[in-house]
# Entry
Amino acid sequence: MSSATSSPMGGATSGVEEFRAEIRDWLEHRLGGEFAALRGLGGPGREHEAFGERLAWERHMADHGWTCVGWPKEHGGRGASIEEQIAFHEEYALAGAPARVNHIGEQLLGPTLIDHGTEEQKARFLPAVRAVRELWCQGYSEPGAGSDLAAVRTRAVREGDHWVLHGQKTWTSLAHEAQWCFVLARTEPGSRRHAGLSCLLVPLDQPGVEIRPITQLTGTSEFNEVFFDGARTPASHVVGAPGDGWRVAMATLGHERGVSTLGQQVGFRRELAALLALARANGAAADPLIRDRLVRAWAGLRTLRAHALCGTDPSAVKLAWSHWHRDLGELAMDVRGAAATLASGPPYALDDWQRLFLFSRADTIYAGSSEIQRNILAERVLGLPKEPRG
# Structure
């Protein structure tokens, strides 16, 4: 009889623990020297921090086989199981390693191409993503089609061997750092809603593309407006069949809320622990209402982990963590008290708690607003009548 026991998700515990020990040991030895100063840098609202140095770190990871661990081996990954991927993301976060710069390419574009791309597309793009030689952004949302993605108006017309794009995307994270964008565009004139859309792979460094950073409440700019005015991409750079873009886009959004959220929750746990320490130090924990909210936050975080581990519907997971994190930002302001309303220095210097409060306001909006997530759950999971639409 094997000595390996089974994990709650059905895997062999001994193999997962060996994998966990391997990444833990590697991070312990590598997050030193030239990379020591990167611990804890980057992440939502802080993507501007040491971007070039974090890029160098991630390329160092690629050189040692620690990018794209969940990809199949034939595409350059490690073929890690779900349990091993969870271990990787948790250990990465526990080590305080810097926020990843290649998340969109590795976690969204790569799996989408593996499932829906041609062999030529896989050969052209996947090695560059795995090696962190090319960075990607996601061109989905538009000024009139944010949560209602099916209302996109960016259009692409086939001209010979190329698609020619006209339109605008917005809230495009890290477009100012990326070389490529996967764009949802309308390729069938006169089509409406989900029909007639295509997913195109578009180079950004070309005439006809303009990128304008958007300043956030935090004073930084990590997402952008992207304007296409005659931008071109080869006809072969369509993922799936022309007109099949909605199915491809939905597959990409499914990857967006994958096992990497377990690493995100380690960051949440660290924030909550720091807030508990602050509440004890400044006396806020003596307030029974504050104390009750802190306990609720602790219980809520445990619930988030349980949902992620058992494979709860992605919309429910997004709905749960985004509201939990937004509430934590509000709780942080109440724990700090009146001092929370003052910038720590001119002209607009924010401390970590103020940045958490301001940026977490967006958590319930980006990657699918809470209203849309509730509609998805009501209509597609619970089978309730659909919301009336004009």
Summary: Strands lie at 136-139, 155-159, 162-173, 180-186, 197-203, 209-214, 223-234, 238-239. The longest strand covers residues 162-173. The chain has a mean pLDDT of 90.
